[in-house]
Amino acid sequence: MAAGRFPIAALFGLVLSSGCTGAPLSLNPASGSALHARNQAVQPTGNSWMQEQNMPQTETFLAAAASSKALYAVGGYDGSNFSAALQIYNSATNTWSSGAPMLTARKGLAAAYANGTLFAMGGTNDATDFATVEAYNPATNHWREVTAMPTARTSLAAVTVNGIVYAIGGNDSHGNFLGTVEAYNPKTKLWSEEAAMPTPRQGLAVAAAGGVIYAMGGQISSGPTNIVEAYTIATNTWSEKPPMPTKRVYLGGGAINGVIYAAGGENTNGQYIGTLEAYTPSKNKWTTKASMPIAEDGFGSAVQNGKLYAAGGAADALALQAYTP
Fold first, then answer.
1. Strand ranges (DSSP E) for 30-125?
2. What is the mean pLDDT of residues 191-214?
3. Once rounded to an integer, what is the mean pLDDT over residues 103-113?
């Protein structure tokens, strides 16, 4: 890893910063079980979090994506090794199962689900930053390599809109923060370069609603940021939106019913936070919502069936937290 990369608390090495508000990385499968047991008989209400069944395998700096039937947690770092693991969560039964591992073990990757396929892209093993893209078929439990991204990078974010996968931001092997936006069409198996994000950054979150992709937070040269920029797909243009109330990096995000959510991350003091903030495009305004039970960064986030999920992370690498608006 190049000097100067990931200066925020040496996160990719799982070295906790001083004064960190999150608990140390937990390798205990029972971690968080008490909270889960308390919530077993409680049905989620509006603006609330529940801790669901822990992941079988510890992971931080993983990626997550979801179909209507499953939540996929893929790759990451398990405390000792880079991971190729695929963990699959069934929200109907609150249970996990294992899928076939990726071909390439890595952390700092991004994931997206499109056209019945899970895509895993980019990431690093600290020796190499990858442009590699792998596609997982849930029906056959099989991975295959597809067309690589034009730009190798890690700590990027990805989102699917109308069957197209967008890979946004990140950093390269020289430690440069990127504004790169590349779009993958699974039907043609081709990538295209789109208008660059105005503020290059890594460790950001993205979410999409109404044909617009929102890029939130991340790390710029001065540290964690609260910048929010919006990409309008139809015009291939970016615009600035009101900043999040909280500056942070390695956060998660998602969109539910047209509302954009930014969850967790690490703040400017090097502390893990559980802050959840919501942006309503029609009001052009951010509001603060219920905080995550476990303050996290470096987790995988995805929306499934009206819930925002946060899987793994640096504070509790087994935890699965679910937010109901």
1. 48-52, 63-66, 71-77, 82-90, 95-99, 110-114, 117-121
2. 98
3. 98
Amino acid letter at 308? L
**DSSP class per residue in 89-149:** EETTTTEEEEEPPPSS--BS-EEEEETTEEEEE--B-SS-B---EEEEETTTTEEEEEPPP
pLDDT at 38 over 60: no
Name the band, by pLDDT with cuts 50, 70 and 90, for residue 83: very high
Give CA angle at 229 (225, 234), nearest 5°: 160
CA 152 – CA 139 distance, rounded (Å) = 29
Cα atoms in the 13 Å half-sphere on the side-chain side of 156: 37
Number of H helices, E strands in the chain: 1, 26
Task: For residue 11, give the nearest of 156, 108, 130 by alpha carbon.
Answer: 108
Distance of CA 80 to the CA centre of its chain: 21
At residue 43, the pLDDT reads 67
The length of the chain is: 325
Closest CA to 209 of 242, 254, 244: 254
Q: Name the H helices within 22-166.
A: 33-39
Mean of pLDDT over the chain: 89
**Cross-strand pairs, 47:** none
Instruction: Report the half-sphere exposure of 307 (CA within 13 A, side-chain side).
Output: 24
Q: What is the pLDDT of residues 246-276, one digit of tens each?
A: 999 999 999 999 999 999 999 999 999 999 9
Are 16 and 9 a contacting pair, CB within 8 Å?
yes
**pLDDT score recorded for residue 90:** 98
d(CA 141, CA 204): 30
Q: Label residue 273 left, alpha or beta by phi (over 0 means left) and psi (-120 to 50 means alpha).
A: beta
